[in-house]
Design goal:
The complex is a heterodimer of chains A (268) and B (324).
Chain A: H1 7-29, H2 33-38, H3 50-57, H4 59-92, E1 93-94, H5 98-109, H6 113-126, H7 133-157, H8 161-169, H9 174-185, H10 187-203, H11 206-210, H12 219-222, E2 227-228, E3 231-232, H13 234-255, H14 259-263
Antiparallel strand pairs in A: 2-3
Helix pairs in contact in A: 1-13, 3-4, 3-13, 4-7, 4-10, 5-7, 7-10, 10-13
Chain B: E1 4-5, H1 9-35, E2 37-39, E3 45-47, H2 51-56, H3 62-94, H4 101-111, H5 118-129, H6 135-142, H7 153-181, H8 185-193, H9 198-226, H10 230-235, H11 247-257, H12 261-299
Antiparallel strand pairs in B: 2-3
Classes of the chains: A mainly alpha (268), B mainly alpha (324).
Chain lengths: 268, 324
């Protein structure tokens, strides 16, 4: 009984509201440019795959997807591996400055990317990482590491302290306990944290665009090239957009059973 | 929860500290450095003290006027966003199907907008709203509205707000859904025995249970809408005129467009400070709410619906389901 009357109608309308703009993008990606500009059609009357073909055969296009995935995966790995021990520490121990440190981390999650765009550009140019996936992966750590710590702390706190104590009594060393016992116990939490890191790194553009020029340019930045002298190439833009939605949709499908608890960041 | 004091825990936190310090403190020092100086190019800087900050907070100067105007717009935007997305998110969460494959389907569709790169979100709405090739713009114009987000301030605002509602309401809904899922069935049964109305159930059981996740939702939504950049930039480019130029857009214009490092850095610091303060308020409220809830839970039973007569009962909203 935890739902309300008319819920099917409300849900239906809301889902239509969510899907309609996406449908329009998909619809446009299968149309020829002349059909897009000349007539208003609810579905492609002369369906074409030319835009997709162009993206998959033109290296400057598909390399953008590879670059994006590179830095997203790098960032997720870095974020999770540094956040895990910290989450354990915050969950189990009290230490000098712990609350301040936690707040400081959290405040970095909230820092506007626009503030950091220029200093990051200087910093990563100076250390020679500019235009590499590493620069973007490290830059994205500023908001993903705090988030990962926050989520994982919730999940670690859900593990009873007795388990740690028993393991130590059984003679487990700390690293062995961590890898053999704790990590499997919070596997779903790690999955959720990884999902969030993937998500926020995948959708961010401002830093990714500022820190790359040619050899690590993300797909989202390449999309802006569809403006040319002959006007907008709407079909190509739509096709590129559709292709950026697919990785996200796949990831959601894999974590669909954890979405609900994951969004509560392990603390309901 | 009594945690043991252990200073060695610092070793566990050290990697995080180093990574975040590298990405946060070093760049921030650069910003502080720039904010005190002026440059004529050629890497020649000279000391300007607090000059930029004075200018920034004085509405009569060009910089101050632009900053304060964009700040006002941004605050208004964030408030509108919260006023729409939080209630709508709760309603959507309450409308979730109970079981079966539809639950997974709804969750996946709800989460979909969250996983779309922000500039693609902008692109989607840019196309969707265009009067010539977009469904929304076309239908509105065909219905007799003179809708054009490129030339009309109000249309641009409405488009940006609807876009944000489209993009982020799901986050609030998913958070609330997670909160609702954690309520044991026994609470509802108790409420039914007491004859609580639907509204009473919502007020006395569901809302308190969603308290914490709602705080997270409000915090995240406020922060993210306060630093929104990509989506409105793609759709309206901050225009028409300056009507949808939010703080981040103004900042990027000054920093990367005009390369006015001093001004941009001063703006960054003030911007960051505002966010830090708001963040601190939320953090304190959240931590206190957690403590209060614990105390409350110990002193009184959690499910205590008020008598149904005290609140206007809505007959149609009576619980339909019997004991599960």
């Amino acid at each position: 009984m935890h739902s309300i009357p008319g819920r099917r109608l409300i849900m239906g309308l809301f889902l239509i509201f969510l899907l309609l703009p996406i449908y329009w993008l998909v619809n446009m990606s299968f149309k020829t440019n002349s059909e897009i500009v000349s007539t208003m059609t609810l579905w492609p009357h002369t369906p074409t795959l030319q835009h997709y073909k162009r993206i998959f055969t033109d290296e400057s296009w598909y390399s953008g997807y590879i670059h994006s995935l590179e830095y997203v995966v790098l960032n997720t790995i870095i974020s999770i591996s540094v956040a895990l021990p910290a989450a354990y520490a915050f969950s189990r121990y009290r230490f000098l400055g712990d609350k301040h440190l936690f707040f400081w981390l959290l405040s970095n999650r909230m820092a506007p990317a626009a503030v950091y765009a220029l200093p990051f550009f200087n910093l990563y140019s100076a250390i020679g990482l500019f235009d590499t996936p590493w620069a973007v992966a490290l830059a994205h750590c500023i908001f993903n590491v705090p988030l990962a710590v926050w989520i994982l702390e919730g999940f670690v706190s859900g593990v009873p302290r007795e388990i740690d104590e028993t393991a130590f009594l059984d003679g487990y060393s700390f690293p062995r306990f961590f890898i053999k016992i704790l990590v499997p116990l919070i596997a779903s939490g790690i999955g959720v944290a990884a999902f969030f890191c993937f998500m926020f790194s995948w959708v961010e553009l401002l830093l990714a665009r500022t820190l790359t020029s040619v050899s690590a340019k993300p797909i989202a930045a390449i999309m802006t090239r569809t403006v040319s002298a002959s006007g907008m190439d709407w079909g190509l833009l739509a096709a590129a957009g559709v292709l950026t939605i697919i990785p996200g949709a796949l990831v959601i499908w894999f974590v669909r059973n954890y979405i609900a608890s994951g969004f509560a960041l392990g603390r309901v | 929860m009594d945690k043991t004091v252990n200073q060695k825990a610092w070793f566990l936190v050290l990697p995080v500290f180093l990574v975040v310090a590298f990405s946060a403190v070093l760049p921030l020092m650069t910003v502080v450095n720039y904010s005190m100086q002026d440059t004529f190019g050629n890497n020649q800087f000279f000391w300007n003290g607090v000059g930029w900050f004075k200018e920034l907070l004085d509405p009569s100067t060009d910089l101050g006027g632009r900053f304060l105007a964009s700040l006002g717009r941004n605050l208004f935007f964030s408030l509108v966003i919260l006023a729409i997305e939080v209630p709508l998110g709760i309603v959507v969460a309450l409308s979730m199907p109970r079981q079966g494959w539809t639950v997974a389907a709804c969750l996946v569709i709800l989460a979909l907008p969250l996983l779309i790169p922000w500039n693609v979100v902008g692109t989607i709405w840019q196309i969707f709203g265009r009067p010539d090739i977009g469904l929304l713009g076309y239908v509105l114009n065909a219905a007799g509205f003179d809708y054009n987000y490129v030339s009309n301030d109000i249309d641009a605002w409405v488009t940006v707000i609807v876009m944000d509602v489209w993009h982020w309401t799901s986050l609030v809904a998913l958070l609330c859904y997670a909160g609702l899922k954690s309520i044991p069935e026994a609470y509802y049964q108790a409420a039914q025995i007491d004859g609580a109305s639907r509204w009473a159930v919502f007020k006395a059981i569901q809302l308190p249970k969603m308290n914490r996740v709602l705080l997270i939702a409000v915090l995240l939504r406020f922060m993210d809408s306060f630093m929104i950049y990509t989506e409105p930039f793609v759709v309206t480019g901050g225009g028409p005129g300056n009507s949808t130029t939010f703080v981040s857009i103004e900042l990027v214009k000054i920093a990367l467009g005009q390369f006015d490092l001093g001004k941009a850095a001063a703006l960054s610091l003030v911007y960051n400070l505002i966010i830090l303060i708001v963040c601190w308020i939320f953090y304190t409220v959240m931590t206190n709410a957690g403590v209060e809830r614990k105390v409350q839970a110990e002193s009184e039973p959690a499910a205590e619906p008020k008598p149904a007569t005290a609140i206007k009962p809505v007959p149609a909203l009576k619980p339909k389901e019997g004991v599960a």
